Amino acid sequence: MIYIGKSNNISNRIKTHVRLNYKYFKNLFYSFNFQGTPDELTALLLESKEIKFNKPLFNKKLRRSKKSNFFLSYSKNKNDIFYLSYTNSPSINSKSFSSQKALLLFINDFLIDNGLCVNINRNTFKVRPCFQHHIGNCMGICINNNLKHAYNKKFLSAINNKKVKKFQSLAFCLNGINYKALYDGFFLRKFYSSKYSIKFNYNSYDESSILLSYLRVNEVKYEITY
To answer: What is the spatial order of strands in the sheet that 168-174 belongs to?
Structure first.
């Protein structure tokens, strides 16, 4: 297979490729096949999935799978206090991250949102309290180990929050058809329709980006549940 694409007019699309003759396209072209889709969004998702599976010669942009290797984890430091870290396999949940940087940004926001200590998480032990303690958002575990029990309890409570542990379910209506998607913030896991026999199982960062980008650009209203 040399190329996978989508079009409302297949004949014109092929003629354009033959006319432009990118890298001697017309010399390699022999036959074609197609599959109809109910809407553009489904076509975009299917195109991306098929390109990754078949790896056509001329589809370079979507051919490479962007796989996430980083997952949220936690353990205790030398003072027996919990802190967040990362691992290369699912630990706390199946929420995956495309890079270590993305995961560390999530950890930083998570700690601040839940009133947990950034210094402890960085294994930074200072005489002075952290900035979050100064603004009343941290109990002061970074300067008082006697708060260990209360802090660890608060930490586990934040980890067990349903928004951290479960996949997100995204539902929307497009052209009178109800759609539902299950994703974890980076990977689109499932995508299916109430009317058509569409049920795609994905495991790629690209498809999640395609879905959310399409909904935002086309101002499609959607609901997220946990």
So the answer is: 199-204, 188-193, 177-183, 168-174, 222-225
Q: By mean pLDDT, which of 16-25, 111-120, 138-147 is the weakest?
A: 138-147
Q: What are phi and psi of 128, to 5 degrees?
A: -85, 150
Cβ neighbours of residue 225 under 8 Å, at least 6 residues apart?
168, 169, 171
* pTM score, whole prediction: 0.62
Q: Are 84 and 157 found together in one domain? A: yes
How far is Cα 207 from Cα 216, in angstroms, rounded to an integer? 14
Number of domains within the chain: 2
Q: What is the DSSP letter of 180?
A: E
Q: Distance between CA atoms of 204 and 106, rounded to whole angstroms? A: 19
